[in-house]
Amino acid sequence: MATRIVVLPPAGGIGAKGSLGRDPRTRTEDGTGMTHETWGQVRGELLKAVGENNFTAWIDPIVFDRLDDRTARFHVPTNFFGSWVSQNFSDVILRHLVSAGIGVDRVEFAVVPGLRARAGNANAAPSDAAPRAEVPADRPAAGAVRTGTQDLPGATLNPGYTFENFVVGKPNELAHAAARRVAEGRDVTFNPLFLYGGVGLGKTHLMHAIAWELRTRFPEARILYLSAEQFMYRFVRALREQDTMAFKQIFRSVDVLMVDDVQFIAGKSSTQEEFFHTFNALVEEGKQIVISGDRAPVDMEELDARIASRLQCGLVVDLHPTDYELRLGVLQHKAEQALARNPHVRISEGVLEFMAQRISTNIRVVEGALTRLFAFADLVRREITIEMVQDCLSDILRSTDRKVTLDQIIKTTCDYYNIRQADITGSSRARAVARPRQMAMYLSKTLTSRSYPEIARKLGGRDHTTVLYGVRKIEELMSVDSQIAEDAEILRRMLEA
Ligand SMILES: Nc1ncnc2c1ncn2[C@@H]1O[C@H](COP(=O)(O)OP(=O)(O)OP(=O)(O)O)[C@@H](O)[C@H]1O
């Protein structure tokens, strides 16, 4: 039985323009109906409206079935295809049907698997009934940006993540400058631009800022921003629905591809493979790629070496941990915005400086601390003072005070297991030494932001994959061996005390 994907006209869409029912061109179903020939004519108009790429990929494969009950019914080859067309092209199809005088209020897609052959025919021209329209010149030179963003499956952009709201300081000035350059959308000089840094330092903010800026400068550009997780999800879905052609078509037809948190696909072999091919296809066409990750490509242990090396070919810039000036700048900027929203809130002198001094973690935490303070001050109707900060943010201030170093981890672990430090950094594989060493690796990875290679160096210059293995081993053991789980918990408490 065919799956039905019903699409209703959007509120305020076509109705708002011509008020569907009252549009003088809209004849009743009895009056006109719709034939395959009319559909052929509408297809010709759709080709002009959506551009050749979209047309061949999404409109050409759909087959008109019939019109009844003011519903134009089409066949589509797969579920994925149906949802895609319904989400992205139903409005434009409906609009053109109405313009052609068809009495129609909705379009509906039903999956008919046998249609696949047509879907694969990427270069098919519109049917004979539709005079082949001139393809609009929507392809500027490689490197520039081109048509239509609405049909892309990207993530939603945060309206607050703009360049105007991004505070620049020493730790992020290079990343900011590179992002600005890419957002100008001129020559593709840094390809890819790879932004990396620890949590909450502004990678996503900068990615969104680039996308907003490009959208403003080039409204027609096809900019696709999504997380690596979404990329994987879409790829897996396309595999499941045997619709990888459509997937490739989407991802290879963009002008700018932006993938956030690329570390997510490290170790996911088929997704990496697809990502690699997408990446290459776009680079070859001179399309801009922007990627973010939590580490430098070389430090992503499970990232396919070919991808890592590709990523290195562009510009790799990191967002450094914050410094006092940057934190203060962010606090001042965010406080200004918060004061505009809550004009009755007062902040005592020295509060922001105190916070910038004492909260030395990432910007997300700094921002969260300020939000919490404003909410509190608003609630109790008191001025924000340093005492209020100490009271209200005691947990954040405490956790910032606590900084665990690799040296402390090694020392505490050795004391706990009663072994010598030379043993833990040495080469012995005896269980009595190897297990504490793995525990130290695990603690280093979970309590500090050190990378695998850094931990490996500290623990006697071993290979970073040994550390990766050690961390995994302890994680595995913790779920089956309560003694190991207890050891880890006690050590964590000792180190964080
Ligand atoms: N330089 C900055 N100026 C203003 N706000 C910033 C700046 N850097 C980060 N922020 C804010 O800090 C918060 C965290 O930033 P963001 O989500 O971009 O971090 P991230 O590096 O992507 O973190 P994660 O690795 O956890 O995804 C956001 O609300 C962002 O607006």
Automatic annotation (TrEMBL):
Family matches, as PANTHER family: CHROMOSOMAL REPLICATION INITIATOR PROTEIN DNAA
SMART domains given in the database record: AAA (SM00382), Bac_DnaA_C (SM00760)
Domain Chromosomal replication initiator DnaA C-terminal span(s) in chain numbering: 405-474
GO cellular component: cytoplasm; plasma membrane
Record remark: domains: Domain I is involved in oligomerization and binding regulators, domain II is flexibile and of varying length in different bacteria, domain III forms the AAA+ region, while domain IV binds dsDNA.
Location of the AAA+ ATPase domain: 189-322
Highest taxon listed in the record's lineage: Bacteria
Name of the protein in question: Chromosomal replication initiator protein DnaA
Residue numbers spanned by region Domain IV, binds dsDNA: 378-497
Protein purpose: Plays an essential role in the initiation and regulation of chromosomal replication. ATP-DnaA binds to the origin of replication (oriC) to initiate formation of the DNA replication initiation complex once per cell cycle. Binds the DnaA box (a 9 base pair repeat at the origin) and separates the double-stranded (ds)DNA. Forms a right-handed helical filament on oriC DNA; dsDNA binds to the exterior of the filament while single-stranded (ss)DNA is stabiized in the filament's interior.
Residues reported to bind ATP: 200, 202-204
PROSITE patterns associated with the record: DNAA (PS01008)
CDD domains, A to Z: AAA (cd00009), Bac_DnaA_C (cd06571)
InterPro entries given in the database record: AAA+_ATPase, Chromosome_initiator_DnaA, Chromosome_initiator_DnaA-like, Chromosome_initiator_DnaA_CS, DnaA_C, DnaA_dom, DnaA_N_dom, DnaA_N_sf
Binding partners and assembly: Oligomerizes as a right-handed, spiral filament on DNA at oriC.
